[in-house]
Amino acid sequence: MNEPKIPVTVLVQTKNEEAAIAACVGALSDFGEVVVVDSNSEDRTVEIARGLGARIVSFAWNGRYPKKKQWQLENVATRYEWILFVDADEAPTQRLKDSIREFVLSDPSAAAAQLRLEYHFSGRALKHGHRVYKTVLLHRRRARFDPVDDIDIPGMGELEGHYQPSCTGPVVQLAGLLRHDDPDPVRTWFDRHNRYSDWEAGLRFRRSGRENEIPRSSQGRVFERVPFKPVVFFVYSYALRLGFLDGRAGFDYAFALAAYYWQIGLKERELRRAAQPAAIETHHER
Known about the structure:
It holds the Pfam family Glycos_transf_2. Helix 5 runs parallel beside helix 8 and helix 7 packs antiparallel against helix 8. The radius of gyration is 20 Å and the shape is globular. The chain has a single domain, classed as Spore Coat Polysaccharide Biosynthesis Protein SpsA, Chain A (Alpha-Beta Complex), CATH 3.90.550. The protein is α/β, with parallel strands linked by helices. It starts with 5 loop residues before the first strand and ends with a helix. 32% of the residues are buried. Helices cover 40% and strands 22% of the residues. Strands 1, 2, 3, 4, 5, 6, 7, 8 and 11 form a nine-stranded mixed beta sheet that branches. A two-stranded antiparallel ribbon has the order 9-10.
């Protein structure tokens, strides 16, 4: 006898994802509802997803809050109150699906669950090195993505950036992995992270000195305060976390992310230099 569907609605984020969407939706057949929230794709993303049984919801960002994920929590009717956000290049392993089923059927008081990524880079699943966790299994009445004052900061656009949702209740960590395997060429990774570093730098510059931090994971909050981030990250990921055991892919990933943190720092310093003449001029006018 087949097991009942997992009582979770999966919201799949897409924009021109025809190369990845079939594998993603195919891996979600154990869930009770799959909804593809598409941002005006110009390829066959919607056609493929609909053919695999997913419900399609179109999203067109109006340039204001809420951004895409919070908009879904506020506007997309779902069969279940537990929501799993995934990107089109992500898919849960069987162990993670079993963990999610057990978790939601236990009627938890938790607001959300944190999932660990199995990150693929340079054609290889990384078993060591830096660990990435995402809080993407949410109870829709206990979690939300609050505005972070980034509408006019380039780099992210319609998407919430690299921060965690605000939760009214405990956040737990589940066993199993959310596989992240982007089929696009590696140049697209660098294109995205160039844009992401614009956002990170702009947000850090804007929020410097403020007491209220961006909601990040505990690991992210610690790393925010580390000096010499590019060097520290590379040593941490490649040596201390044994990234070298993943071979050349482990080196490539550690080096690429270290360069990403270098970009953020460089761009933030540029923003500060650009702001200094304006600050001096304002002081003289007084």
